[in-house]
Amino acid sequence: MTESAPSYPGERLGLPREGSGSIGRLGRRVGALFVDYGAAYLISGFFGWDALAILAIFAAIQLVFIPTLQGSPGHRIFGLRVVRVDGAWVGLWRPMVRTLLLILVIPAAIWDADQRGLHDKAAGTVLLRA
């Protein structure tokens, strides 16, 4: 028995095709990344810190806001939220795993048919439209 390919991202996860609760698409994800990285860049520049500090601030933004607001400021501005695949609260360790892999870049650039990066798959999370 062969399984057919999903007709839209998130179908295999039981998510709607569009609207609230559907998979966050690339444009929103990139916009959110620019907002969060830009905020880290501005904070770092204000204190005169270097590039490594920008990355540390970016990671701190992710680690503080994902468990508390279901997403970073960039995610929230672009109407996204990070949840576990089952829809529950992400807890504390999932944002750590997700963020570590996100700052490595490559895991976030490799996606599956549901447009979940390896960083989300490893953490058991999914980025949804709010």
Automatic annotation (TrEMBL):
Keywords: Cell membrane, Membrane, Transmembrane, Transmembrane helix. Signal peptide: none annotated. It holds the Pfam family RDD. It is found in: Cell membrane. The chain crosses the membrane at residues 39-66, 87-111. Residues 40-124 form the RDD domain. This is RDD family protein. It comes from Microbacterium insulae.
